[in-house]
Write a structure and sequence with these properties.
single chain, MetI-like fold, 27 helices, globular
């Protein structure tokens, strides 16, 4: 280019630049601001608390200077180390017992002609409905030292002065944890066994193998990846659980990791020490979850015959009755017995007086719902916060799912967004709560003591559930439908409002329910983040356990269960009769 041409171009450029910028602005898709806002909210909910958790673990509480003193304090006492050992024992023992409970039940329901399969299935769904800490209350009523129903029965029948059962012990905690975690093993194993064709078992039978040998050498090895994945998942669930250990381990005078973390928050709270103590739990959880996903993703090889292949129930003959008896024993331990005593306590004038008509009353429920200001406010808070959290989680998850599936950002950034949205699934609730406490108890964003810190913690905790459902729903919609709207002159917002949202109504309603239900029961996050003005039912139930008022405890629990059942019935209509169990296996 000649020098004169260059000068003319330089002279014209300033005048052209604003016009070009204006054109770009006019043609810019205004929906981009929504996607940028969604990404900012995702960073705010997920990245900031975890980053603050990591930073605080290396900071002095007063000066903020770098220090390793928090880690030294977190592991300087033998009882802190003992709590880590107790969590390891709890996780391994509960996961092993879950295999003993869940694998036979899954095989019986999936592969055999055992009668009363529907009863077993409903019982397992009922176990999902019961919050683990409410199940722990039921077992306290059943196997509390001397006063528990089982101990009183043994004392009356045998005539001894002391009952044999003590729920306030490590075996008691293992039993309670396994009772409310084995459904994970059941669902994973049943999903794998449902894919095994009977032709493989027939081939083994033709070669002379009996049913037991076929099961041991053919059927179960094909389901082994799913069983191992479920074992890891249950182990993680057990070591991250707070409610049951707090109700059972603390009266039993021993600690696990989660209860020790809770004690670090006794006044004055030692946030840095708690953050340092939570790091191994977070690292182990991430590693084992990664291992579980690797194992689960290899399940595809079990269906060797493709989509075809007949699946016939294995005839058990006379053994179907012992198999049914074992299934009913497990369901009785996890569902029937705890629910019976919880209902009895909630409807009794005094739960220790036993089952009699003159001991029945509805006053406990009426007082809890309408007369007791504390429980009434906690009930309102529980469902208000859960509803707001579900709305935020579903909205954010839908935006991220749309960004990723419609490739509005690059493939690498889309992968990062998906990873961040699913990341809370591998973060124990108690660790996430400590991160929120560290991030939002100081200016510039002071949320502690307000309802918002609970709402945002709930939304973050259950964001993966909303994302899994929203992602599946978005993928089911052909993008050509939106392209047609754009071709006819509509904006992206028009396409979303007129095409996408009407098609997603049922899926989004189901996702809302799936987030709302666990949010109403969440304890591990709430116990760290609530204030006297933001108390919820799960925290109130935990606080009231120290008073020994089991009638009120049971009434609170029964209200939670009733609301959950109503929501699940709605979910049945929207997503199918097994939607609660299918989402677990996803």
């Amino acid at each position: 280019m000649s020098g004169g041409a260059a000068e003319r171009a330089a002279a014209v450029a300033p005048a052209v630049a604003p016009s070009a910028f204006g054109q770009r602005w006019r043609h810019l898709d205004k929906s981009s601001w929504v996607w940028l806002l969604a990404i900012a909210v995702l960073l705010f909910l997920v990245v900031n608390p975890l980053a603050r958790l990591f930073i605080v673990s290396f900071q002095q509480p007063d000066t903020g200077a770098f220090t390793l003193a928090n880690y030294a304090a977190a592991y300087s006492r033998s009882r802190y180390i003992d709590a880590l050992g107790h969590s390891l024992v709890l996780g391994l023992s509960a996961a092993s017992l879950c295999l003993a409970f869940g694998v036979p039940l899954a095989w019986a329901v999936s592969r055999t002609d055992m009668p009363a399969k529907s009863l077993v299935w409903v019982s397992i769904l009922g176990t999902f409905i019961i919050p683990p800490y409410l199940g722990a209350v039921g077992w306290i009523l059943l196997a509390g030292p001397n006063a528990g129903w089982l101990n009183r029965l043994v004392m009356e029948v045998i005539g001894v002065d002391k009952g044999p059962f003590n729920i306030y012990s490590m075996p008691g905690l293992v039993l309670v944890t396994a009772c409310y975690s084995f459904p994970y093993v059941f669902v994973f194993t049943k999903s794998a066994l449902d894919l095994v064709s009977s032709e493989m078992e027939d081939a083994a039978n033709i070669l002379g193998a009996g049913n037991l040998r076929t099961i041991w050498l053919i059927t179960l090895p094909l389901a082994l990846p799913a069983i191992l994945a479920a074992f890891i998942l249950v182990f993680l669930e057990a070591i991250a659980l707070f409610g049951s250990p707090a109700l059972i381990a603390l009266p039993g005078r021993f600690h696990v990791v989660t209860t020790q973390l809770w004690q670090f928050f006794e006044y004055p709270p030692r946030v840095g020490v708690a953050a340092a103590y939570a790091m191994p739990l977070l690292v182990v959880t991430i590693f084992l979850f990664w291992l579980q996903r690797r194992i689960t993703h290899r399940r595809g090889y079990i269906s060797l015959t493709g989509k075809g292949g007949e699946r016939r129930p294995i005839p058990l003959g006379a053994w179907k009755w012992p198999m049914l008896a074992y299934c009913l024993i497990v369901c009785t331990l996890s569902f029937f017995m705890p629910m019976v005593v919880i209902c009895q306590a909630a409807l009794a004038k005094a739960w220790g007086r036993g089952f009699s008509l003159d001991n029945l009353t509805l006053n406990n429920l009426y007082f809890t719902l309408f007369e007791n200001t504390l429980t009434r406010n906690a009930t309102i808070h529980t469902f208000l916060y859960a509803g707001a959290a579900a709305l935020i989680a579903v909205s954010l998850a839908l935006c991220v799912a749309y960004i990723v599936n419609r490739q509005l950002v690059g493939a690498k950034l889309g992968y990062v967004l998906s990873f961040l949205t699913m990341a809370p699934f591998v973060i124990p609730g108690i660790v996430l709560a400590i991160g929120f406490y560290a991030a939002y108890t100081h200016p510039p964003l002071l949320l502690y003591g307000t309802a918002w810190i609970l709402i945002l913690a709930y939304a973050t905790r259950f964001l993966p559930i909303a994302y899994s459902n929203s992602n599946a729903a978005i993928r089911s919609i052909n993008p050509e439908l939106e392209d047609a709207v754009r071709i006819l002159g509509g904006t992206r917002f028009t396409a979303i409002g007129r095409v996408v949202m009407p098609l997603l109504k049922r899926s989004l309603a189901g996702a809302f329910i799936l987030v709302f239900i666990p949010a109403t029961r969440e304890l591990s996050s709430a116990i760290f983040l609530y204030s006297i003005n933001t108390q919820v039912l799960s925290v109130l139930l935990f606080d009231k356990s120290d008073e020994g008022n089991f009638e009120m405890l049971a009434a609170i629990g029964l209200i939670l269960v009733f609301i959950t059942v109503v929501l699940i019935l709605i979910g049945f209509r929207l997503l199918g009769r097994d939607f609660m169990l299918r989402r677990t296996a996803a």
